[in-house]
Structure formats: C-alpha cells, structure tokens
Amino acid sequence: MSDNGRDSSVHERREWPLWEIFIRGMHGLNHRHVGSLHAADAEMAMKNARDVYTRRNEGVSIWVVKSRHIAASSPSDKGPFYEPSRSKAYRHPTFFDIPEEAGAM
User: Fold this and answer.
1) In the 8-state DSSP scheme, what is residue 50?
2) How many CA atoms lie within 13 A of 85 on its CB side?
3) Which of 20, 29, 87, 105 has its CA 20 to 30 A from that of 40?
4) What is the pLDDT of residues 12-53, one digit of tens each?
5) How far apart are the C-alpha atoms of 71 and 58, rounded to whole Å?
C-alpha cells in the first residue's frame, strides 16, 4: 500500500524519460557525452543539464537526446561486428617505410 492508501500496483509509477547529455567544451570542436538525467521534456533536460554538468562555466553548447533514440553496438559483439574492417589492410599504414629523417611518429 502506498502512503495515500491506494495499492501501488494499481497506479504504476511513471518516470520521466532518460536523456543523454553531450557538452561541447570551450576549447573543443566536438560534443562529449558527460552523463544522463531524467526530465519531462527537452527544455527541462537542457536546463537541468546546464545546472548539473556546466557548474563551472566550462560548456559552450549542450545537446540533449532521449536515450531511446540512440542505437549502439554491444561490446559483446566486438569481434564479429568489427571483423570486416580487419580484412582491409589498405586502411592501415603498417606497410609503409618511414624515412629515418622523419623521426618518431
């Protein structure tokens, strides 16, 4: 039973959607994932992200994306997922001779 006398199983608790937060720093050109938060809408997510993730005025731009809109590969699929790129040796400069006068690279 909940505090108001109603059975909590009857009234399912609804959570706000989860948002992924990306911040572009003052000295960078790309946005970096900094964390997640729950918010009712994009405007609230943006304001909450500003308050939580840029407290020291380090950001110049914020992106908020609903987590459900992000598709990602699974770390457990690492081998099979990336296998096709291993057969493309021309993408890796491992077979070039580097002149000694170039120094360490």
Assistant:
1) H
2) 7
3) 29
4) 678 999 999 999 998 888 999 999 999 999 999 999 999 999
5) 28
- Overall residue count recorded for the chain in this entry: 105
* In contact, 48 and 42? CB cutoff 8 Å: no
Which region, left, alpha or beta, applies to residue 66 given φ > 0 means left and ψ of -120 to 50 means alpha? beta
**Cα–Cα distance between 54 and 47 in angstroms, integer?**
10
Q: Which residues of 62-85 are buried (b: 16+ CB within 10 A; e: fewer)?
A: bbbeeeeeeeeeeeeeeeeeeeee
Q: What tokens does 21 get? A: 């937060």
Neighbouring CB atoms inside 10 A of 103's CB total 7
59 C-beta neighbours (distance < 10 Å), count: 21
Read off the pTM.
0.64
Asked if 61 and 24 touch (Cβ cutoff 8 Å), the reply is yes
Contact 48, 86 (CB under 8 A): no
Coil, helix or strand at residue 64: strand
